[in-house]
Amino acid sequence: MNKGTTHNFLSETLLELHHVFELIHENYETWDINLEQIFLLGCSAGGHLASWYSNQYQFYKPKGVILCYPVTSFTFGWPNNMTHFNFALPSSAEYNTAEMVTSSTPPTFIWHTGNDCSVPIYNSLKYCDRLAKYHIPFEAHFFDDGPHGLSLANRVTAPDDNYIKPSVQRWLLWAVQWLEKQIQLTNES
Question: CA–CA separation, 5 vs 42, rounded Å?
Fold first, then answer.
């Protein structure tokens, strides 16, 4: 984000994601997509985008969201200061996705590590608190150890051995089980 971008691209990325959902809905028959089984996954800043989109857009809303060590507010430890962005934000409060949670927020699977030094776990805890407040079904997993950006926490995605965490690798299996449960609930309704 610090590579010369001098305009506020945050709203643009939200609109781009909306266009992706529009494209899917326009072509679902040709692409053989079940519109009742579209979920959104985001990690870190992508988790911010996924949670923002799923809380803001009422059309083409995903059936569920998977958030991996997400940024949910720019005031919960990332960025360390707002000069991280090369542009002025009108108000960091308007980007607080935890505060955007409502009764129409989709079910959520979320995970984080307790010692993530880049995006503090408070981002996920605050988001879970808001999900609970609005009685949104969610599954949360918190692991004691692991740096930011673990992805699958295995050799496939690890840039070095510090990112290989067998105890964290379980999140993917749990997320798949959660997805299957959400699809089953959708099929029953």
Answer: 22
